Each structure stands twice: as structure tokens, then as C-alpha cells.
Amino acid sequence: MSRADRIYLFATVFLAIAAVAGGIMLALEHQGNQPVEIRLCQARQPVRSGEVYLDGAVANPGIYYLQQGDSIQDLLLDAGMELDDDLSRIMVYVPRHGEGVGPQMIDINRAEPWLLEALPGIGEVRAQAIVGYRTEQGPFRRIEDLLKVSGIGPATFDRIRDYITVSDW
């Protein structure tokens, strides 16, 4: 048998083994792809027993819904307060029956540009102008100081005045 015949025989045997191994692999893979049965159960919605507004030393201030069985500590953890934070000055306000919750206010001294853009008439450019102004001039003392920002006139201010506040610095 010549050298070329041996190489041809070796290549033929190798390809035959590769084809058989590939066929076995495909068969095993196809066998593993059997349909999966999914059953949906009827989960009950949790019962809401109230709303709590959390602000201050929490990462995500806002309104949180108190579910049956929740504790204030559960809500504080949801809002981003760490267990080792100072909990000595927690204030709880329980509204009277029929008393509505007003809109959440955006603190123009602390808000990131993306949050300022949520205000009516404030786009990316004006939001950046607000942040730039407070960086250069210091915090706003009152909401009317927003009129000093380039691009914010009386009409824009009137549209957002009910949605903004300034924090004490």
C-alpha cells in the first residue's frame, strides 16, 4: 500500500468516525429538547393596607405601598436604607380619612438631570442648565431662584412651580 493510499484510508476513517460521532451528538441533543410543561397557578394579589411616603436618608425616596404583614423596617429596606443606619428620627404621618396625597416634589438642589427632565417643559438642555447653575452658584435658596437659570422664564416656572421644592442646606 502506497503512502497516498494510507493517507486516503486514514482520512476516510477519520471522516466516518466524525460523522458517526456528530450523528450521536445530534441525537442526544434532540432527545434533550423535549417540550417543557408550564403550569400557571392563580396567585392572589397582595392586599394593600396603605401608602407610606419615605424620604430622607433612603436611596429611593417615594411612596411605598404597605402590604399585609409588612413592617416599617421592610419598607425602609425597600427604599434603600441600611440596617445599621440611624433610625432614631423616623417620623410617621398618618393622613386623615379622605385626605389626599399631593404630588411628589422634586428637590432642585439634589435632583439628577434625568429627574429634572420629568418636569413639564424641562428637557435635557434646561436640566443641565439647572445642574450647572447650582454647581457654579451654590444651592437654590427658594424655588423662585430658578428664574435666574438661562432658558427658564416665567411661563416655564409657572408650569413646574407645583412640582419643585428646595431642601434646607
Q: Widest sheet: strand order?
A: 1-2
Uncertain stretches of 5 or more adjacent residues: none
- The secondary-structure class comes to alpha+beta
Question: What overall geometry do the principal axes of the alpha carbons give?
Answer: elongated
Give the H and E element order: HEEHEHHHE
Quick structural summary:
The chain has 169 residues and is an alpha+beta fold. The protein has helices at 3-32, 72-79, 113-116, 124-137, 154-160; strands at residues 48-54, 62-67, 106-107, 164-165. The chain is built from five helices and four strands; from the N terminus they run αββαβαααβ.
Question: Any descriptors?
Answer:
alpha+beta; single chain; DNA polymerase, domain 1; two-stranded antiparallel ribbon
Description:
With 169 residues, this protein is an alpha+beta fold. The protein has three domains: 1-36; 40-102, no CATH class; 106-165, DNA polymerase, domain 1 (Orthogonal Bundle). It contains five helices and four strands; from the N terminus they run αββαβαααβ. The longest helix is centred in the first third of the chain and has 30 residues, at 3-32. It is elongated, with a radius of gyration of 32 Å. 8% of the residues are buried.
